[in-house]
Amino acid sequence: MITPSAPPRRATKVPRWVRGVLAAGAASTLALGAVAVVSSSASAAASTLGAAAAQSGRYFGTAISAGKLNDSAYTTLAAREFNMVTAENEMKIDATEPSQNQFNFGPGDQVYNWAVSHGMQVRGHTLAWHSQQPGWMQSLSGTALRNAMINHIQKVMAHYQGKLAYWDVVNEAFNEDGSRRQSNLQATGNDWIEVAFRTARAADSSVKLCYNDYNIDNWSYAKTQGVYNMVRDFKSRGVPIDCVGLQAHFTGGSSVPSNFQTTISSFAALGVDVALTEVDVTNASTSQYSALTQACVNVARCVGITVWGVRDSDSWRSGESPLLFDGSGNKKAAYNSVLNVLNSVGGSTPPPTTAAPTTAAPTTNPPTGNCTATISAGSIWNDRYNLSITVTGSTTWTVTMTVPTPAKIIATWNITATWPSSQVLIAKPNGNGNTWGVTIQHNGNWTWPTVTCTT
Length: 455
Ligand code: G3I
Hints:
Layout: E1 29-32, E2 35-38, H1 49-54, E3 59-64, H2 72-81, E4 84-87, H3 93-96, H4 106-117, E5 121-129, H5 135-138, H6 142-159, E6 166-171, H7 192-203, E7 208-213, H8 222-237, E8 243-246, E9 249-250, H9 260-268, E10 273-281, H10 286-297, E11 302-307, H11 333-344, E12 372-380, E13 384-392, E14 398-402, E15 408-413, E16 415-421, E17 424-429, E18 435-441, E19 450-454
Parallel strand pairs: 2-12, 3-4, 3-11, 4-5, 5-6, 6-7, 7-8, 8-10, 9-10, 10-11
Antiparallel strand pairs: 1-2, 12-13, 13-18, 14-17, 14-19, 15-18, 16-17
Helix pairs in contact: 6-7, 9-10, 10-11
């Protein structure tokens, strides 16, 4: 358990469990003019954390720092192992709004672009927090601060509208005794958290809105109960909240409590996703990493796990060697313990309850050039699915992909992408060949996108 002066032991955030399955079973192939549509199978891969987690529709993520993206050992390792990214500092308030109403999305966009160019999803972190406020915000109070918080949420979420999987809307707003933490935000009125969530929903209805905190791992701990009661109250009154993040910083001597799974399942029972959002463990205890992973996979709505850094040398607590890779990028024993747990549940996940996208492939796409775009099914989860696209006939192609509303294209890889809207993607080669991919959040419409290929 962390104390206010010690580094926090964070409770795990558990993103909603997307019961995913990898697309299975080859299906029909349609070659229609310039566009061929192929339903194909994808097999479970289980040699990396992301692939192992994906077998049960979960993700495995890491915190990424923009300043390390020129370190090829770091990026190679991160790209290989993870499929979710949280910007460690670059989307925080001081980074995105250094002067009031003057926004800087450069570093945040660096992290975002790196993630999506490697086929990863992104968690936004964080919009309203007592810490890492820019100086101008620290000096505000009352209505001026409330309005500044609202404006910040609106502007930052507008920038990333339709692009992120989750947003940590409010971070670390409770004391250890379960009461609200005193802060300039809290002093604007006890309703500041729900105002933040309502503002967030209005700003971007496509992203899941999370409350994120540490030391909410132990079900019988007062802080856990304080947060639980707030989420229960929000759900009962219709305040928009979709997920709870248990940071799960088991550092500074704290350890995974025996009732950790009860905490996860209790939050999930309120109707929210749960995720472990900032995991690290003192000296990377294999038994604790194994236990926290098992607790997550045992709860359907525990949607994923994010570790707070790639290698020990990247950790905010590097002296405790708390991560899954050593400073040289070697897998530690804890890595194998996590991978083994993820693989042990890999094949046991039930299929999605909704129709697979293979049921509604496009039927008409007239030729518009000397190239052909062939679409193949990739992984499928409850809320989204991947497609792989291979272009033949040209190396200087432009593919325009249009997905029917309310579906959205939320990630791409191996292309240079421009986005006229969340429904329209213009893809050009980025030097990595002619096979590329997209993730589509279906929002209830599984109809595959249409594509046209021009040269
Ligand atoms: O980049 C500057 C550098 O230019 C300067 O020389 C140096 C001097 O101190 O500071 C550097 O910035 C530091 C930054 O990390 C990047 O390393 C900040 O001082 C330091 O405060 C900041 O710490 C971050 C901390 O949040 C701030 O609260 C950690 O990296 C980050 O891992 C940590 O993450 C938090 C989560 O957001 C919320 N949950 C707890 C978690 C761990 O504390």
